[in-house]
Structures are given as structure tokens and as C-alpha cells.
Design goal:
Blueprint (H helix, E strand, L loop, with lengths): L1 E6 L7 H15 L3 E6 L22 H12 L2 E7 L7 H10 L6 E4 L2 E4 L5 E7 L14 H9 L6 E8 L7 H16 L4
Parallel strand pairs: 1-2, 1-3, 3-6, 6-7
Antiparallel strand pairs: 4-5
Length: 190
């Protein structure tokens, strides 16, 4: 199985990177091919999507590179903090820029059709606030990510985990979180 882990945290010491590394390590123990794509890495950092005519958006070599990584993955893992009640702007730009019409979805006479239906996804989010807040109808992250973003492209969201109250967590609690991540990574591994 090929797994692409997409991380987004500007600090290399951030807990999101620890989650990504724990998932990678556990998945590799099951002989999966795993790659971490850090959206803050200057080698792949993309400018924010900008165009006058959406039919004339330039297909850059960076977009082709990233779309190829997505296309070749069986599973996408997103790991990021919740900022202002959602993913950081760099994650949303990643989706805006790379999950394009003709690659991730298309419109037919019968309506929209996702083109990435052979993929699954898991999302791990961290938050300083209480996790229950993001399950209320006012900010339904599972619905937004599972249906409106990934589901729109045909990707099946298998898990969305929010590790909340991070600023109050002890090292022991954080280690338990990383153990949970490893257990999830090993489930359904080939």
C-alpha cells in the first residue's frame, strides 16, 4: 500500500510532525510505502491560487508533481492543527491548487463525479480548544472534510481524529495519543 502523509505545521517541533512520524513508522512496519509531504517545505511550497479565468489556470510542474504523488497513493493522511476553526490556509490552498477539475472531479450531464474514488483518507487534527466544539452543527468538520472536500473528489474518509486541549496535555497523555495513531496506522495494513 502506498501512503502519502500531508502535514502542515510551520514548526518542525510541532505535535503534528510527531503524529505524522508515528503513523509513518507504524505503517512501514507493515511493509507499506510511506512518504511525508510537509506543506511548509520550501521545495514544494506553492503560491496561493490566483487566476482571472478558472478555465486558464496554469498547470505548473509543481501541480503536476503533487498530483502525481496523490494519484500514486492508495491512502492520504492529513495531519494539521485547527486554526480559526478549520485547517490552516496552506492546507486549504493545497486542496484549491491541486484537487483540480479533470484530476480530482469532473462535471457530467448527471452532475459532479469524483475521480479519486480508489483512495481512502484519514485526518488527524490538533487543537488547543475542546474537541466537542468541532462536532456541533456550527462547525461540523467531519461533514466538511468527509463530504464537501474529500468526498466531492470520491475519496472515502475513514477516520477524523481531533486531539484536543493540546496546551494542557502532559507528555504521558501525548504519548498515549501517539500510540493511538500507531494503532490506527496498523489497522488494515497489508
Amino acid at each position: 500500500m502506498k501512503i502519502l502523509i500531508i502535514t502542515a505545521h510551520p514548526s518542525e517541533q510541532g505535535f503534528t510532525h510527531k503524529i505524522a512520524n508515528a503513523y509513518k513508522k507504524a505503517s512501514e512496519m507493515k511493509e507499506n510505502e510511506v512518504e511525508i509531504m510537509d506543506l511548509y517545505d520550501t521545495k514544494i511550497k506553492q503560491e496561493f491560487l490566483n487566476f482571472e479565468d478558472k478555465k486558464k489556470v496554469e498547470m505548473t510542474s509543481e501541480i503536476q508533481f503533487i498530483q502525481n504523488k496523490i494519484k500514486n497513493a492508495d491512502e492520504l493522511i492529513f495531519v494539521f492543527p485547527i486554526w480559526w476553526a478549520d485547517a490552516p490556509a496552506i492546507v486549504k490552498n493545497f486542496i484549491d491548487t491541486n484537487f483540480t477539475a479533470g484530476f480530482a472531479f469532473e462535471y457530467t450531464s448527471k452532475g459532479q463525479r469524483g475521480l479519486l474514488g480508489d483512495k481512502t483518507a484519514k485526518i488527524f487534527m490538533t487543537s488547543d480548544g475542546p474537541g466537542f466544539f468541532y462536532k456541533f452543527p456550527i462547525i461540523p468538520l467531519k461533514l466538511i472534510w468527509g463530504k464537501a472536500r474529500l468526498g466531492f473528489c470520491g475519496i472515502k474518509l475513514q477516520k477524523l481524529i481531533i486531539f484536543d486541549k493540546m496546551r494542557l496535555r502532559t507528555d504521558v497523555e501525548k504519548e498515549k495519543m501517539l500510540k493511538k495513531v500507531s494503532e490506527i496506522a496498523c489497522k488494515n495494513c497489508k
